[in-house]
Amino acid sequence: MQVRLDxxxxxxAKRIAPLYVVHGDEHLLAIEAADAIRAAARKAGxxxxxxxxxxxxxxxxxxxxxxxxxxLFGDRKLVEVRIPGGxxxxxxxxxxxxxxxxxxxxxxxxxxxxxxxxxxxxxxxAWFGALDAMGITVEAPVIERGQxxxxxxxxxxxxxxxxxxxxxxxxxxxxxxxxxxxxQEVQKLALLYPTGRISFDAVRDAVLDVAxxxxxxxxxxxxxxxxxxxxxxxxxxxxxxxxxxxVHWAMTEEVRALYRAKLGTxxxxxxxxxxxxxxxxxxxxxxxxxxxxxxxxxxxRDALARAADIDRLVKGLRYVHGRAMGDAWTELxxxxxxxxxxxx
Length: 344
Description:
This protein has 3 domains: 5-139, Rossmann fold (3-Layer(aba) Sandwich); 145-206, Helicase, Ruva Protein, domain 3 (Orthogonal Bundle); 215-339, Zinc Finger, Delta Prime, domain 3 (Up-down Bundle). It is built from 17 helices and 9 strands. The chain has helices at residues 8-14, 27-43, 61-68, 89-103, 120-123, 126-134, 148-158, 165-175, 179-192, 200-206, 218-224, 227-239, 244-266, 271-277, 283-294, 297-314, 328-339, and strands at 19-23, 46-53, 76-82, 109-115, 136-139, 161-163, 196-198, 319-320, 323-324.
């Protein structure tokens, strides 16, 4: 049975299930969920703890033994199974299904299985279906940028603090893509300042720039028309050592999709059909039409020509069309801000 992360506390307070599965790529939230399960199990008397790390040499017979063996001291036991690769394999699949069945109605053992983010095919597998049917599954979803302001405000409130919208927006810019560091910055504010409202100046003085950027989200900032964020992301990716070739590819794919869609709509094709053909969906789809309205066909044509010039630059050619090109990262930032609607 799936339980939302924010409902896990209530479920644990009601009863301790014999089987829990925590999965997801947001490490802070996954750690907190697992810690909450451990604490509830310990409070309920599951004192002994058996940890199984699944690697290439792991023997799944150990899971069977852990589930069947009694505690030396008669205590109830928590069995942790950590599967960092997310793929248990054929033997693991059979062992997990058998273990899930064996745990039904068990009152002397609680099993906690932790996994990374699972792909669709893994969620539809027989082993995951058995775990979900027999136990409690909790997903630790990635906190996207749009969710960060409310997340930070809620975490501040836990410490009896609050900040205005400008201060929280400043924090979002500084911690984007790094939720664990965001948590640490919130905790730092709790140590530095008393409960109540924290001023913008106090937040600015205390919060470090610990943002981490995903090159594949750069296109979203371009489509959203957020020029300052595009500039920050390009600078951040450069500082993190990202390849300019990959950044160029991500930007060019967005420009090319906009250009093709603009040509198609000019020829009378419906945008809904074009977005399907161009594989534009999810958050991109919501931002795509406003970006189309904001950007003209000549501008997109020029942007594609600039992207072609930058392609030569990132591959080592300093002279394009007989003129010296500037720094690759500067040119990439200019291209991204052009699509965001910022005049060079």
